[in-house]
Amino acid sequence: MTKFLKKLVGPLVSIFFLLNMTSTGYAETTVSAEVGFIFNTLLFLICGFLVMFMAAGFAMLESGMVTSKSVSVICAKNIGLFSIAAIMFWLVGYNLAYGIPEGGYIGKFIPWSDASAVDTGYSDGSDWYFQMVFCATTVSIVSGTLAERIKLWPFFLFAAILAGIIYPIVMGWQWGGGWLAAAGFSDFAGSTLVHSTGGAAALAGAMILGPRLGRFTKKGEPAPVKPFAASSIPLVTLGIFILWLGWFGFNGGSQLAMGTADDAIAVSSIFINTLLAGAGGVMAAGAVTRLSGKTDVVQMLNGCIGGLVAITAEPLMPSPIAAILIGAVGGVIVVYGTKFLFSLKIDDVVGAIPAHLFAGIWGTLIVPATNPDANFGAQALGVVSINAFVFVVAYIVWSIMKATIGIRLSKEAEMKGTDVSETGVIAYSIRD
Q1: How far is Cα 70 from Cα 419, in angstroms, rounded to an integer?
Q2: Which of these, 48, 73, 291, 426, is most buried using a 10 Å CB contact count?
Q3: pLDDT digits (tens, 9 = 90+) for 402-427
Q4: By C-alpha distance, which of 14, 53, 20 is closest to 35?
Q5: How far apart are CA 383 and CA 196, in angstroms?
Q6: How much is the pLDDT for 196?
Q7: Angle at which helices 152-161 and 376-404 cross, to 10°
Q8: How far is CA 34 from CA 6, 156, 310, 377, in A?
Q9: Cα–Cα distance between 190 and 312 in angstroms, integer?
């Protein structure tokens, strides 16, 4: 017992010392490299768990937003895309992003292997896991936009290409030390690298796929709500709260360190700003829709996502008031972005394009307003280059798939519902 207590005292003293340091008194940690390694690794793992839980949030959000005859397929898509992202990010994705030469454009097409060492500051495996769940999040954004008319396995094929090649390439441009990092582009947790990437890929797919049957009238206006009514608003709400919770891991974990008091304070500040930006997005979207006569709960829910996406590019530097305002603008963008898509007859079932692509662009461009180290030119360069690359490549991939294996369900299958035509498993006994 005495030996056990002696072994226990050292780590406890180190932890107590670390927790009681102040940012003004201790700019750098004085704990051992091994203790710092443990704290940093725990940050990656714990925040990675939270980001993985976002997969459940996307599944619930999408399941609630589609009609009741397409819920089982949404569940299949979400569990499938997450599994595909894990395999592809191990097979090629991680090294495509991090095997890139300094200032370069693309890494290596080789599987990832763990080479952890204490002097790196964290476990390589924890970093791989944390980055992999970001990759899965990018793919999840595409799923809901194309719901109710896309074939399941062609979607899985696109998910593999996005997770294994497209996303890792643009990720490496900045987070892997590539050419955008050299140009001074700043995107703390991925307003553009993750969210706009997913939104741009979804936009290309929606344009190639076309809207659901009867979604727009001949005049170009959205069809009456009833045939396309969401299956469960409570489920959507649950999904949003899960995503909001997961976002603390998304943004907080992107501090990438927890071995000093300053890092711990930074993560706490990021949590506060993430919370407030989401709240700003909710209330701004609700207020804007109220001006038209009724408060739209769906837009409030998506406004939360818009606010969270907007703050993701820089969640540390803004003041709380600035975070609320940045999130609020994200919420307003969601409302008017949805109307803009309607005017173009682009059918985005869950509203992912306004919430992720449009709000992501806003969040990235506004970074210089709160971060003096960022500049608008570099931010604009990153936004344009990433979104153009992803959209063009995704458009080409979707077009090739459409011309070869086909991506859209037949009219009969779509009318029956994707649950019947794709899985044979009916989610609800009473369907539209």
Answers
A1: 5
A2: 73
A3: 999 999 999 999 999 999 999 999 99
A4: 14
A5: 8
A6: 98
A7: 140
A8: 18, 41, 36, 40
A9: 6
What is the 3-state secondary structure of 290-350? Answer: HCCCCCCHHHHHHHHHHHHHHHHCCCCCCCHHHHHHHHHHHHHHHHHHHHHHHHCCCCCCC
Amino acid at 224: P
Number of C-alpha atoms within 13 angstroms, CB side, residue 385?
Answer: 18
Locate 332 and state its tokens. Answer: 């307003």
Residue pair 327/308 in contact (Cβ under 8 Å)? The answer is yes
CB 193, CB 171: distance < 8 Å: yes
Q: Please calculate the CA angle 127-128-131 and round it to the nearest 5 degrees.
A: 80
31-423: CATH number: 1.10.3430.10
Closest to 313 measured CA to CA, from 277, 350, 262, 353: 277
Tokens 């501090």 belong to which residue? Answer: 255
User: In 10 A of CB 15, how many CB atoms?
Assistant: 14
Instruction: Give the number of other Cβ atoms within 10 Å of residue 424's Cβ.
Output: 8
CA dihedral over 236, 407, 210, 223, signed as positive or negative: negative
C-alpha 27/C-alpha 39 separation (Å) is: 17
* DSSP codes of every residue in 161-224: HIIIIIHHHHHHHHTTS-HHHHHT---SS-IIIIIIHHHHHHHHHHHHH-PPTTSB-TTSPBPP
| 111: exposed, middle or buried (Cβ count in 10 Å: 0-12, 13-18, 19+) | exposed
Counts of helices then strands in the chain (DSSP H, E): 18, 0
Q: Collect all residues with Cβ–Cβ distance below 8 Å to 52 and sequence separation of at least 6.
A: 133, 136, 246
**Alpha-carbon distances, residue 255 vs 94, 270, 317, 392 (angstroms):** 19, 9, 12, 31
Place of tokens 């009916």: 426
List the Cα angle 226/334/398 in 5-degree steps: 80
